[in-house]
Design brief:
Blueprint (H helix, E strand, L loop, with lengths): L1 E7 L3 E7 L3 H13 L3 E7 L7 E8 L4 H24 L1
Antiparallel strand pairs: 1-2, 2-4, 3-4
Helix pairs in contact: 1-2
């Protein structure tokens, strides 16, 4: 997986993820929408056969990259909890 910041502004942050499918981005997208300071979160797959995603975040009161990192951490915790529940 490769992650590259394609756009970074004061209230908007866009990152390109190469080598992962849409499922991973949709989990992060869901967590971003739960973040109160996020005003917009979107995932755009350029083409179904190309493993490249664009994740765009707009936020107020905090930097959008911090909102993305917080969402990634919550997604990781939730995935671990799900894994533990399933393996029991």
């Amino acid at each position: 997986m490769q992650v590259q910041v394609s756009r970074k502004e004061d209230r908007e942050f866009t990152v390109e993820v190469t080598g992962e499918d849409y499922s991973l981005a949709e989990i992060v997208h869901h967590e971003l929408l739960d973040e109160k300071s996020v005003t917009f979160a979107g995932v755009l797959p350029p083409h179904p056969l190309i493993k490249k995603l664009v994740v765009k975040v707009r936020a107020q009161r905090i930097k959008p990259e911090k909102a993305l990192l917080a969402s990634l951490e919550r997604a990781q915790v939730n995935s671990r909890e799900l894994l533990e529940a399933v393996t029991k």
